Amino acid sequence: MGCLGSRFDKRKDAATNLHGVNIAFVGGEGHANDLCPVDKVTYKYGDGKEMSEVFKTAAQACEDEAIAKRIAEETHAILAKELAFLKDKHGDPADGKKELVRGKYDLKDAKAHLDNVVKALTDAGFAAPAGGEAGAGDEKKDDGAAEEKKDEAAEMEGGEDGMEGADGMAGMMETAKDLYAGDDADYSGFANLPKLLLAQCVKNPYFGDLVKMQVIRWEFEYVEVAALLGVSMPKIPLDVPVPGKAVDPFAALDGSLAGAAGMIGASIDASEGDAKDVWWSGHAGEDDLEALKEIGAAHGPILFPGWISGWNTEEEAKAALGDPEAGAGTPVIFKVNAKCLSAVVCRNFIQRLNGKLDSFEEKDGVWHGVVTEVPFEAGTLADWQKKKDAPAGAADEKKDEGEKKDEGEKKDDAPADDAPAE
């Protein structure tokens, strides 16, 4: 790959910063957009095949029971590992002590979010495989009333995009239960798995951030090995396992949530409706912020991998920023007018938004960016691969040939200089 520059090397950290995954972007110095129409984690999971062929998705639906079961089992497995990791790493903190998980979520909230997702999958007909039972990070409760109380408390604590319980709602709505109380969608059965996974990403945002984190990491870390070698991309260990120490299940770039990410993305892509104004928010690290300033000043290209979890108003997006922990980054709000999927009561989703950053300005401590969508050219992954693999300069030569042809046609149509006067 060569040297990509220190800023891009530092920006790779954004892939693991849960405060910034909803606004993570490709663009700026050392990180050019190669215009791949699908997320790199999806491209790898599907071995370069079309999303529709791999995930069998239609508008908010899956049409293949086998792939739905496979992805549900993969999701169950990684949730069990993450719950076990949280228990081993953090234990059971004393009452009243706040224990942050991955720099953003209180431990009790993170565990509740994951337990909620496990329960939602199970209730939908996707039982956890042997060894991956629900609530793997906690002792099982025998008392039914206690379980019901726990679930109710978890619902009350689940914020969105950095809203940690009631503390982060900033006057918008007091709880996530209020936000999604009107959700009466049917999530049962294999056909509804795409809807279920997407809903769980916003209702239980620790889960959503983990899925998006893996999407962003693959986008930043993806290295295509020369086809001549025929070698698959290796796992990239971020932590060296130490005997007796809990092992982070996301320490290696292994694609554990790639199936869930791909199914969500494919479903959104097939479900986007009319264009509307959408706002979304997050926190940018120092190097991300500088890159955004430069892109905005140049009205340059920008790509948002994965899906944007957006809102209907700027006020909602600002409220979603909440009151983050120190070091989370600088608050940023983006706006775009684009086709989107409006779902889960009050949310708007856009898959792999490609565009240009028309402006990026600071106002009252929050940076505001306005994006103009630049839709991908219609085509297949195979078409993209051909363009990418074309010899250097081939595209320019083809462009020159087209321009010469146009000039020749214009010349033929023009009257000759020595044409007789009428």
Report on the structure:
- The chain is globular, with a radius of gyration of 24 Å.
- It has 14 helices and ten strands.
- The protein has helices at 6-11, 40-45, 51-55, 65-90, 107-123, 144-157, 176-179, 193-203, 205-221, 258-269, 286-297, 314-320, 381-389, 394-413; strands at 57-58, 61-62, 100-101, 105-106, 275-284, 301-310, 330-339, 341-343, 347-363, 366-373.
- The protein is α+β, with helices and mostly antiparallel strands.
- It folds into two domains: 6-373, no CATH class; 381-408.
- The protein starts with 5 loop residues before the first helix and ends in a 9-residue tail after the last helix.
- Helices cover 39% and strands 16% of the residues.
- The strands form three sheets. Strands 5, 6, 7, 8, 9 and 10 form a six-stranded mixed sheet that branches.
- Helix 5 (107-123) runs antiparallel to helix 8 (193-203) and helix 8 crosses helix 10 (258-269).
In a nutshell, what does this entry contain?
With 422 residues, this protein is an alpha+beta fold.
Q: Tell me the radius of gyration.
A: 24 Å
Number of structural domains: 2
Query: Percent helix among the residues?
Result: 25-40%
Number of strands: 10
Give the integer mean of the pLDDT values: 81
Poorly predicted regions are: 134-174, 225-240, 416-422
Distance between termini?
A: 65 Å
Q: Hey, roughly how much beta strand do the residues contain?
A: 15-25%
Number of helices: 14
Order of helices and strands: HHHEEHEEHHHHHHEHEHEEEEHH
Q: Helix/strand-derived class?
A: alpha+beta
Please tell me what the overall shape is. globular
Largest sheet: 6 strands, mixed
